[in-house]
Each structure stands twice: as structure tokens, then as C-alpha cells.
Amino acid sequence: MRAPVGGRIGDRRVSPGNLIPGGTSGSTTLLATIVSIDPIRFEFTFDEASFLRYQRLAKDGKDTASRDGSAPVKIKLIDEQDFGHEGRMDFVDNVIDRATGTIRGRAQFANPDGLFTPGMFANIRVPASIPYEALLVPDVAIGSEQARKYVLVVDAENVVRPKYVTLGDVSGGLRVVKDGLAPDDRVVVNGIARVRPGQKVTPQEEGAPPSSGKSANAG
Q1: Full-model pTM
Q2: Contacts 24+ apart (CB under 8 A), 26-30
């Protein structure tokens, strides 16, 4: 007997010589289970708000999580620290689950060494926007004032001033600043507890650390 699909087969459920029912009735006997290994598909769900954001981006020609297999995604397994496995989206369902408010997505990953096994759990990272250049500052430089976030900068007269910013994600220990900061701003990253807005300081400038992701223009 030859299976019409390839993959890895589990243990047999019956032995040669056993009598089994066949046909199309509901009493047919399961002989064995075959699962696809390479490539392997990862299924996940995301919330309705995220789905709407992707839909609006797609209408603007900025599809970041498409059905056609063009959007790159990454996963990490439960014993890994980084999202080191890259695949591509290949399916988004056509209906939102009304019970959970989520929609099902699927991504495909190459699995030549058989590391991924069906039924495994993993975390997935789906791009929230198209790639763009962004200002990055150390996350420790971010301060909070009630609901607002700010950084301390040193102006041309070496006086400390607060600048309120709009933040993005963390990338390699650096925080993305979407708005409120200019590329030539001098951000206070060390000795923050010893300075106050309006105080004159003698800054010691450091270069921005290298980034493997978005460009870093503030240090």
C-alpha cells in the first residue's frame, strides 16, 4: 500500500493479518498517520485590530501579512532566545472567529533537518509595517511622565531639555522613536538620575551603537 502524500509516518495501528473495515463508512480503521515535515506549516491566530491594520496597509499597497506568500515572518521555539527561523505567510482565513475575535493565519517554513515537529509550540513575529528607517535610542533613556514618554536631550548651550516622544518596538535593546526626536539631537543615556531639565551640563558624547536592524541616528 502506498500513501498519496509524503512525510513522516507514525506507528501502525493494526498488524498484518488483522481484519479491518473499509469503504467510505464512518467505521473505517485508521492504519497510520502521516505528517508533512519539509516544508512544514505553522498555524497561529491574531486579533481583529491587527487584521484591520494589515487590511488597511494592503489597500495602500503596503501589504505586510499577505495571503500570497510574500510576507516574511520569523518564529522562535520554546528553548530559544531569538527569532532565528524565517518563513513566509501563505494563508489568512476568510472569517473572524466570533467567539474569540481572532482570525487564523498560516506560514510555511523550510525544515530540511527535521527540527520542527508537528504539534510544537512557537512564538511568531509578523511585521507590523513595511521596513523603514527609524531613530533608535537605548531603552534606559526613556522616561515616563504619567501617560507620556520623554527623553532628555542636551541643546546647543549644553542645557538639558525634555522631549516628548512616540515610541515603537524594541530592536536589539534599542527603542524605536517614531516621533518627537531629530537625528541630530543629543540624548542623555548615562547619568540620567543626576540631571534635571534646565540644568547645564558638560556632556561627554558617544557614538551610536551599531544596529543590525533599523538605522540608529541618535546616541
Answers
A1: 0.57
A2: none
